[in-house]
Give the backbone structure.
Amino acid sequence: MEYKFSDRVSNLKPSAIREIFKYAADPAVISLSAGNPSPDAFPAKEIAEISARVLAENPISVLQYSVTEGYTPLRNHLKEYMKKNHDTGNENDDILITTGAQQIMDLCTKALVNEGEVVICEAPSFIGSLNTFRSYNAKLVGVTVESDGMNMDELEEKLKQNPNAKLIYTIPNFQNPSGVTMSLAKRKKLYTLAKQYGVLILEDNPYGDLRYSGEYLPTIKSMDTDGIVIYAGSFSKVISPGMRVAYTIAPKPIFQKLVVCKQGNDVHTNIWSQVVCDEFITKYDFNAHLDKLRAIYTKKASFCMELLDRYCAPAITYNRIDGGLFIWCDLPQDVDMPAFCKEAVLNKVCVVPGNAFLTDETEECHSFRINFSTPTDEQLEKGIKILGDLANK
Amino acid sequence: MEYKFSDRVSNLKPSAIREIFKYAADPAVISLSAGNPSPDAFPAKEIAEISARVLAENPISVLQYSVTEGYTPLRNHLKEYMKKNHDTGNENDDILITTGAQQIMDLCTKALVNEGEVVICEAPSFIGSLNTFRSYNAKLVGVTVESDGMNMDELEEKLKQNPNAKLIYTIPNFQNPSGVTMSLAKRKKLYTLAKQYGVLILEDNPYGDLRYSGEYLPTIKSMDTDGIVIYAGSFSKVISPGMRVAYTIAPKPIFQKLVVCKQGNDVHTNIWSQVVCDEFITKYDFNAHLDKLRAIYTKKASFCMELLDRYCAPAITYNRIDGGLFIWCDLPQDVDMPAFCKEAVLNKVCVVPGNAFLTDETEECHSFRINFSTPTDEQLEKGIKILGDLANK
């Protein structure tokens, strides 16, 4: 049998990161290529307590079918929490619980973007989201990320050139992979441009709570008086990614369409894990837990940057980060980056080649991404020393 | 802001069943409209035991990110189990764990069906799957379900008329909603026709283990020497729907494409629940558990048919069932079925109007679906008596 796949997926390939994970699976290889929370960061004891309690008291409530919109108490608590803590969401919005934030990208593309229509993305951007957009045959148009976020002149030009743009996808805080945070001025400008050109903003904020220095900036959604921003939040980086619980705050007409799409996608998100997340954020000290995570990662991030300074200068430069899990490293213009990454793997260190994060993977790129949350301090030191030795050779 | 949704979803509506659930949510209404497992059917104690154990012994393994294909031990155990017990799956197939079987329909449509291409469905068929096909702008073509499965002459005609048919969707065992089981002869004929016309079969088997009388029939997938059958299995009806764990056995090239699509959809299925399902089917007596479920439902199904005979004859006729969770009831041709269902709700009994399950909901239909697994025996008796009184009036 010769299989004929749909046009939308016939050119889809497994993500480059997945291929790299094959090397990273070798226990002799130090992986700086993942994006997993640190093993110290999981509230495992509390999850075990909550789970034991709900399974003893009302097992059917967490094992039976549930509603597509999500567990009502969790939705209500998140609405309150996001309003109170981040001024995010208003009376024209509603909240949908999803199976990880990846599903938000899927549902939004499905509901809003026809094949051939444009999604404007940061260049570089999160490869998982780019692949989701691609899986609906959307056309990706990249806008250069500067040290304070997207280049706004370039964004406006791309908006002019692409009247069939439907979404602007942005990760404003500690962007994956660049580590960049969008300035307040650019957030406002982005909102204004989106409004002016009638394009929706998809604001992806998985790392927002993981700030290690500097001041918190308002979400773009907090400026949304016109119903043009879809906000994506997630418990993956702050409770557990294995549970796959995330949420989107969206204008009600969009929310309703996302609910219908989700119904056809997976009916509802694992209700057991939804209840566990709800109990964790309401009956335990969630803010103290976030403080603990920030303490863990602040230490790891500083250590990682210290190592980069010590071992990698001057050949490797990088943007200092204020939060998140990733650091974007630049090689000199005359260095062949893919060859460097291959050489690194042969020397038992795995990083992600920067071109994997571009809307066009074949573009020339001299950067790579490293992650500091997953490796131990010993692995981090050993791995970064190897990278520095290679780069300075 | 006026929102412009994609062509594929702009005509999608919430499923008719969901609308009916709004009435069913009234505690005064007896719901015969659901499809939930009986509250007695959950292995809650065992799930609590397993969960406590894995969270104590290796919490990170169930809380961290996992791989898209699914938990490797579960995949291997399911491969063995399906081969040994159902001769289903061979060396040209692979197995993918999904977030409920609904996701299998989503991934298969995404990977295989372009907008405007045809999915051939049983008429009537499971509304959830129909809506998923619709959400990709697939064209649905229905084939009449007889008491032994699809009308095969009609199927062949539809295959001839629709050279752009990509999938034949069937629920061969205790079909939802008709309760019908496809005969062995028709399974063979279906396979032959699919092969002859170069169309893939999507075999959905959520109720296969819930047979209460008669002989087990081989799966269509067990005949698959040509790599043309995608099999969908699920733990929703035999362990817990709230956990959203299902699996598809598909020819390897299709499997690979489904994996890429799932990666963009939700990265992976809740790993905690995957581990719980794996431990339950391997470290506990899964067959004894299935026997227990069959005992519960055999009793409930017999009781329900007894009640239909007692209270509803002669106005309501129905097909006796050998398994599954649903009974398809027919009203006389001169009765206005939607009016009857509305009248039933006003009398505090909720059933699902049969046209909800048709590829064209506006077609005339004189049937409705009832479920016997969710209501208590008291509710069942009271509800069916009301239906009988109404119908015989």
Observations:
- Chain B touches chain A through 80 residues (CB under 8 Å).
- The longest strand of chain B covers residues 139-146.
- The first helix of chain B runs from residue 16 to 24.
- Chain B has a mean pLDDT of 95.
